[in-house]
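Summary of Year 1 activities. Much of the first year was spent building the evaluation harness for sequence design. The harness presents a backbone, in tokenized form, and records the residue chosen at every position. We chose the following record to illustrate the format because it has been used consistently in internal testing since the harness was completed.
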């Protein structure tokens, strides 16, 4: 039976069987029309080309650039309006098109292109025109980073700064003009990477007109070249802190078999495939290393995943877990409230929580997703099936349960 299963698996791979998992959805920006679309392979055929698999999720942008997940929604850059906006599907109708579902999150930029949110909640934003990177955080918890001191200069002298990959202690920012990636490290802990040795080239300047960056499973990252229409895989193989050595920057996919045409933003799907916003190709490509030779350079390893997008810039994968299911029992219910209450104030994130620590935002996330059940597709981004009682009502219920338990023990 095992041998038969292996043969079937090999046949499916050879035939180009779909590897994109059902239930995984993505958001992608369409630059010049200022829109955000949601993509999902609803019929599990390996693409989002069918009717209803690409829907309008957000709009109102002058020029939609890169985006990043943040709290229960996303941050997206408007490079013409020179600001970042926060979008959230507050009424759980499957989009963020309604009144109050998008707000200005921070402004005062010049020509922002790249954004990424680190695990600690800090947002890093690149400004292409000024060659700078800023760090922004909602310090007073009022829902934005518009207040004094909430957006600060993090580093400068990154020529044509575009895409960012933000880690907790290290950030990588793409320099479009110099054709390389910079590594930023706040070595002295003063809140910036402006000091000597804190902003260093991480790759050679050979990735001409580089744009787009995405973490790579097992370490390293992918970076795209607009000039060469190539996706590179970058890995510091000798552990010396950079990828300057031979064999540390290698082609992963190109335009010979793959049809890459100005690759920009990338996202990794739950099946391991790499989704690429093919900006000048007006589509999204799915890259899969089917023969496990370390690249997607072979015939059939790059296919069209979605089309009908005029100028796709950036793409992110939405969470597949059930947000708010803190006890991981497959449903967001009263028991998850208890888990949240007991761990309130902890610095360690709860299960199925996409933000660091345990705070009031995690209560809101539980309330928002109350009643959702695992196995219903992208549950955390679709309408909930139950109405959440007001917090005061839940407190009364919990008090009553405790009282009844006490009475039963006295008997």
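For this record, the design step produced the sequence shown next.
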């Amino acid at each position: 039976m095992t041998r038969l299963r292996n043969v079937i698996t090999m046949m499916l791979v050879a035939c180009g069987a779909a590897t994109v998992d059902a239930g995984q959805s993505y958001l992608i920006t369409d630059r010049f029309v200022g829109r955000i679309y949601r993509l999902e392979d609803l019929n599990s055929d390996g693409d989002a080309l069918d009717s209803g698999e690409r829907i309008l999720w957000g709009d109102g942008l002058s020029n939609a650039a890169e985006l990043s997940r943040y709290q229960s929604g996303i941050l997206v850059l408007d490079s013409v309006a020179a600001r970042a906006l926060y979008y959230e599907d507050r009424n759980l109708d499957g989009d963020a098109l309604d009144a109050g579902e998008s707000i200005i999150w921070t402004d005062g930029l010049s020509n922002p292109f790249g954004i990424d949110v680190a695990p600690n909640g800090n947002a890093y934003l690149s400004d292409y025109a000024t060659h700078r990177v800023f760090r922004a955080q909602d310090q007073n918890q009022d829902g934005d980073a518009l207040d004094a001191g909430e957006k600060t200069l993090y580093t400068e002298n990154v020529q044509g700064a575009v895409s960012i990959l933000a880690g907790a202690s290290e950030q990588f920012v793409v320099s479009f003009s110099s054709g390389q990636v910079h590594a930023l490290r706040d070595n002295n802990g003063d809140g910036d990477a402006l000091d000597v040795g804190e902003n260093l080239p991480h790759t050679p300047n050979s990735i001409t007109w580089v744009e787009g960056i995405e973490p790579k499973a097992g370490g390293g990252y992918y970076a795209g070249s607009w000039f060469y229409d190539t996706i590179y895989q970058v890995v510091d193989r000798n552990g010396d802190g950079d990828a300057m050595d031979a064999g540390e920057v290698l082609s992963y996919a190109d335009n010979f078999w793959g049809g890459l045409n100005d690759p920009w933003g990338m996202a990794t799907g739950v099946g391991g495939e790499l989704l690429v916003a093919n900006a000048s190709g007006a589509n999204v490509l799915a890259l899969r290393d089917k023969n496990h030779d370390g690249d997607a350079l072979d015939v059939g390893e790059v296919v069209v995943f979605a089309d009908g997008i005029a100028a796709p810039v950036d793409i992110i994968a939405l969470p597949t877990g059930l947000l708010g299911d803190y006890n991981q029992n497959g449903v967001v219910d009263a028991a998850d409230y208890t888990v949240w209450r007991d761990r309130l104030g902890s610095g360690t994130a709860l299960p199925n929580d996409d933000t660091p620590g345990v705070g009031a935002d995690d209560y809101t996330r539980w309330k928002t997703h109350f009643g959702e059940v695992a196995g219903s597709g992208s549950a955390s981004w679709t309408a909930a099936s139950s109405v959440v009682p007001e917090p005061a009502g839940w407190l009364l219920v919990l008090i009553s349960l405790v009282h009844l338990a006490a009475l039963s023990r006295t008997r």
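The CA atoms of residues 372 and 384 lie 5 Å apart. Quantitative recovery figures across the full test set are reported in Table 2.
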